[in-house]
Please model this.
Amino acid sequence: MTAVGIDAMELWVGNLKLDLPGTFAPAQDEDPGKYTKGLGLHASSFPDSYEDIVTMGANAAHRLMERKGLEPEDVGRIDVATESAFDNSKPVSTYVAGCLEQVYEDDFHHANKGERKFACIAGTQSVNDAFNWIASGRNRGRGAIVIATDTALYARDDPGEATQGAGAVALWITENPSVVEFSHAQGIGSADETDFLKPNQQFPSVDGKRSMQVYLARTREALEDYKEASGGDVHPHDFAYVPFHTPFPGMVRKAAVLGYRNLVRGTEIEAELAEEIGAQPEEDEFEDTEAYREALSEYTDDLAETDRYQTWYDERIEPTLDVSREVGNWYTGSVHVARASALLDAYETDRDLSGSKLLVASYGSGAQAEIHDETVLDGWREEIDSMNVGEQLESRYDISFEEYETIHDSHNHDLDTDIEALTTPDSEFVFDGWGRMGERQYRYVE
Ligand code: CAA
Model:
């Protein structure tokens, strides 16, 4: 069977930074602890007035192509996942290809282009499309550029405003990859849910608390399905890291303990934990569902306090959140940021990761979760060494609250604003005004 996976990855961080505990919390008259301790966020990455989903996606893809020495003829697909699209017909991938054609001599006329929509899980679905295309043998030796790009903005004063972010991830998916190889085992948890949606509107309608419950329910369902697909023999220590979709780190804190509770079932850890905090409650031991749920919730709180769980969490989950804490939610890119963050941690702590497995848990509202595993390959270290995420985070312009208000307005499709950029673009694609048919136009700034 052809090995398929990620051969290279790039993150493109919005050029502005909103300090959440330092700038946003005081302006909202909130305790900074809500951000640092509760949500687990320090900053949001924000797009300057000349940035949008196309510029960030094209910039990430351009950097990836330059670094890997790729030419347009090497690329058989450009797939874009986004929930911030501004065109209901022409896909963002065509805008991205148009940008890239400004800087390459050749074109992408033989690359299949598309756009995926299913909230945040669309990024992983695009990766799966690329996987299937290559595994089917239709790729003729070429690879796929998968871009997950979003300006994850909420309406002003919506509770979701605390979790905003903007950025793009570009992944180069190939046969015989060098960073990770995808497994064939895949679990899905999917149901028609009304928790987070954008019915022909730019900013989401969100039932925040319900969205968190739906995230947990669908993820649990996907984990059960993944265990079945893997032959049932899954142990929490099988995985070096477990990157989750990260709308904010506090959400992952809740999901991780449920995942652990599920994964230890039937392992030696379950019996050892039973001696420490009692056995996991079983539904048939209770008179009604409410009593069972209460017992389960108490058990889960006790489990989260055990040293055994804390160690598992600190080693396998916490490092996946490092980048997210500094950038906020990138919707479709968020789980791919978590993977990159895990690999960055292994690089910085000089860990030998080759041959280790990652358990990757994606999620999209509306709602669907997907879980699969990946094996880390020998080229991962070289790839991470070539990325410049730390530099990008450092070079962001730190905005004041007043600047935040203006920039938020400049990205509001319902407002007609023309504001000065806060930063100067450097070797990147920028938004360059409107064309005669209402299309957005772009140019490369040297
Ligand atoms: N010190 C320490 N902790 C504090 C604190 C303080 N001073 N103040 C508040 N907190 C804690 C709260 O206790 C809470 O933690 P718990 O959930 O563990 O109790 C946390 O900080 C957040 O505080 P609130 O619940 O008061 O925050 P909120 O009501 O303003 O909204 C939210 C939180 C519902 C997540 C909101 O930000 C939101 O709607 N976000 C968008 C929706 C979202 O991200 N949902 C996630 C699942 S859906 C998904 O994943 C798809 C996607 O990407 C959108």
